[in-house]
Every structure is written in C-alpha cells, then in structure tokens.
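Appendix B, example 12.
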Amino acid sequence: MKDTPLLFQHGVCDCHVHVFDDPERFPFENAPAYAPPFSPASTLLTETTQAGVSRVVLVQPTPYGRNLDLLRATLKVLGAKARGVGVADASIDAEGLAALKGEGVAGLRFVENLLADGSRMPGTVPLDVLLQKLAPAMADVGMHAEIWTPLSVTLERWRDLEKARVPVVLDHMGGFDPQLGLEHPHFQRLLALLREGVVWVKLALCRRAAGIGYDAIRPFHDALVEANSERLLWATDFPFVRFAGTPPTIDHLLGLFRSWVPDSKVREQILFCNPVERYGFETILSER
C-alpha cells in the first residue's frame, strides 16, 4: 500500500511516545506505579527509524511528574524531529510557559484517570489547574491542553473546556469505553465534537484494545476517521508500559493503520499534515 510522495520523503509522526532513562541521571519525582523500562532517546530513535517514523511527540511519563529535565534534554537531542507535552502545576508563570514553548514543549497534560483505590495518580495534574489557573497563559503562548481522562469526564467538563480557549487533544482515542458500543451517546458526542473541529483525538489503539483485541476497536477507529480526519493524530504509546501480555511494536501498529485507512491522502493528512499543524513541526523535515 503506497504512501504519497510527501509521506515517502518526510516520513510519519508518532504523536505519543515516552522516554525513560537512568534514574541516577534523571530521577523520578514520584515512586513509579509500574516498573519503568530503560528506554532512552537512543532506543526510541532505533525503534522509530526501523518503522519509518521520523518525528515524535514526547509525552511526560507520570513517574517524572513536574521534573522535565529528561523531556527537555531529549528535545534538545532530537531537535526539529520532536515536540514535547509536559506537566506543570499552578505555580508556573507565563515566563516559565514561554520558556518551555521555546524548548519545544507544545502543550501540557492534565489527567483525571484515578487508580483502582480511587486516589489520584502520582505525578499528574488535574483539569482544575488548567481551567482555574493556566488556560489564559497557555493560550497566550500557543500551548494546547492534552487530556487523559475517561470520555464521560471530558464530556462533563466540556463547557468549561470550551471557555478555556485552548486547543484540546484527547489521549487514547478519547478515552471511550468500547464495551458501551458505537451508538452510545458518549461516543456519538465525541464524533460530533470531531465533526465540529473543536477537538483533536489521538489514534492510539493499544489501551482501548486491551483485553478485546484490535478487530473490536476497528469500528470505532473507522468512525473517528470518517468524522474528521483533519483532527486526528496517529500515536503508539511506545514503549508500552503497564501493558498486559506481549506488547505491540511500532511497525505492527503502523501496519494496522495503513490497512485500516486505504486512502493515501487521508493517511498523509493524519500521519504528516495534522502533526505539523498541531505541534508546529516544520513543513519540511530538517536534519538538525
């Protein structure tokens, strides 16, 4: 299945990856709730290059919390080939946000996923910090809000998110519950927001497919693509932490995407054009 000349020349962007390095050099801010792998920038480069991925969006892992040293160091190493999504609490000021933006941090992540005991996941910042404090300064510097939360929570807070006037990117296919089905009002509302062009959604399959398989997720994937391919971002979640069973590979997930999206122009839109627009990548990939 051939890609367009633009994709063939400049490659694919994976919009959700993580790096983990030696904790002696880059200490965790919080005790990890899982066993972090050793997966530094060199590992990421090897795995992505082998799969034909030339650009990445680095998302701050929860064990590092607000300590962005590794994220910033990796952005410096990867240069024009990477952007970042960081974490910050209400104490950061406009100058601090502008400095992060200048280093390649395109957005901040806010999380409403809770642990099994109902407690907040260590190293995460809740939506209220965005809505009550950071949104105006983020809008001023051109940052977006990346939200990792169940879809039901996103929809409950949607009016507040609209008022915040910052672009919203939803992690993990919007956080819908596949057991509820395609016709559930929550998923249909997500499709409506996509059609309106007011939200971005990451097509990261592995979390939604856990326990049910990729075939069960495909109808949801197809519906998202049909709703608005101009607001979708392809992503893997490499290196697949907290993954039960054998983890996927970047190459396998990219192959699935290509087989599920046969139109080469739609693939170009999702794999190349949308990341350029959302994360501020250069239109033509430089080598620096």
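The chain has a mean pLDDT of 93. The radius of gyration is 18 Å.
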